[in-house]
Amino acid sequence: MLACGRGRGQNAGDRAEIKMQRHDLTPAMDLEQPSQARIHDYLLGGSLNFAADREAARRLLERVPEAALGAQANRAFLRRAVCFLVDAGVRQFLDIGSGIPNRGNVHEVAQELAPECRVAYVDIDPVAVMHGRQVLAGNDRTVVVQADARRPDRILAHPDVRCLLDLTQPVAVLLVSVLHYIPDTDDPAGIVAGLRDAVTPGSYLALTHLISDHKPDLSQDLPPVGEPGGMYAILRPEASVRRYFAGFDLVEPGFVDVLTWRPDGPGRPDGDPVRSCLHVGVGRKP
Prior knowledge:
By secondary structure, the chain is of the alpha/beta class. 37% of the residues lie in helices and 13% in strands.
């Protein structure tokens, strides 16, 4: 067991020591290469993006005009899901692929409802990590770590995560707009299974994914892997993505289009392109 007590009872010295061990990530930045986190920030109207990201986003919007609406719907689902999870009694969140902090961050939503909530943000993008740490400076119930979503073992073993979250208690794992950027060769189902096996019963999984069932040609509209500005998104059949919830009980209304999952108000028509290609769900580990 770490001296910090897995997120309960750690003192200021423990937290200060962890912060001092963090490295300057500036040399790791490649601002000429578009970043998924920064493209997403641009689509949400953020300002922490660079010329390469904006050009990639413009190319995406030329081919898929509804991409910005999809990003907004994805963000709105995240808020609704966090509200549901807090109401369900969850007080710990592991947000993998969290991106650049924007309006409606997980900690803002969760801690407004229950101030004791703890949130560990994880992203591979150094801009997202550095800005997140600046935004969250002074909030001792949050951490931001740089790690690869494809290595859940390293995420769970990260000292900041271990010090903040108590994995013997329920935790909500958030994989929001992450898995459709992970190719089959990296075994996204295995990534989810590893996270599932690591969390205690009563924990939750929330994920969103682009699916191909209703728009099978959409993948052809997306910039492919290797092309400048390529989004690398992989649309998968709904049935394939549903299998990621193996070992979880889907909560109502199940794995459904983003506008159907516990909406705040009336959704858009059934033919809405965002509705047809972005599906979401929340499951509970029994």
